[in-house]
Amino acid sequence: VGDWAARSRRDDDGHGRFRFQASRYSFHSRAFMKVQDGCDNCCSYCRVRLARGRSVSLEIAAAVSRFRELHEQDYREVVLTGVNLTNYRWEGRGLEFLLERLLAVDTKIRIRLSSIEPDAVTPALLEVLKHPRICPHFHIPLQSGADRILGAMRRRYTANQVVDLVEKLRGVKDRPFIAADLIAGFPGESDED
After folding, report:
1. How far apart are the C-alpha atoms of 64 and 57, rounded to whole Å?
2. Which residue, of 96, 122, 123, 144, has the fewest CB within 10 Å?
3. Contact between 101 and 60 (Cβ < 8 Å)
4. What is the C-alpha separation between 30 and 70, in angstroms, rounded?
5. CA 11, CA 26: separation in Å to the nearest integer?
6. What would the 3-class secondary structure string for 122-161 be?
């Protein structure tokens, strides 16, 4: 286990979770940049923790360096990806700090977030999302709109918290595109759910 843990933390030597760089295999104007992997949640339907392990994040300096490389390759948009992107943490700093550092790079590249967990969007993150280079596209892995089912799924939020988040996102961006994942037919789910 110790050896696996050490290997899983490598990110810049070509042997770790962040070695794949989609920009090297793409002929598009949009690049994907993985900055987070794994998950610390224990949702009842999900096996990501077993397959990918606990949450790990790409070092901020490495992320900024890769972002600059994408700028030099003339990309116009970068999608930040991760299994649980809002779980990004490096030396106690979250996704909002990473976004601030990327936005400070002298470029016109737009930044799109692959998805945001409803329970992890902080006021500081909402403030950064106001930046004009952050795309007005927000994907929320909702899973269910019924509190009873969310509890059975061991999700960390209620349906009302999601409604509140959507209202906050609408306050941050003018007419944002908001998408969601929903699981239909979860065991025990009723027609009313």
Report:
1. 13
2. 123
3. yes
4. 9
5. 21
6. CHHHHHHHCCCCECCEEEEEEECCCHHHHHHHCCCCCHHH
Query: What gap in Å lies between CA 122 and CA 116, rounded to an integer?
Result: 11
Cβ neighbour number for residue 182 with a 10 Å cutoff: 10
Please tell me the distance from the alpha carbon of residue 101 to that of residue 172, in angstroms, as a whole number. 19
Full-model pTM:
0.83
| Run means of pLDDT, 10 residues per run, the chain, 193 residues | 46 58 62 93 86 90 95 93 94 96 93 95 97 97 96 96 96 96 94 91
Q: Which ranges of the chain does DSSP label H, i.e. alpha helix?
A: 2-9, 48-52, 60-72, 95-103, 123-129, 147-153, 159-172
Q: Record the tokens describing residue 142, joined without a space.
A: 């909702």
> Residue 108 and residue 74: Cα distance in Å, rounded?
10
pLDDT of residue 48: 82
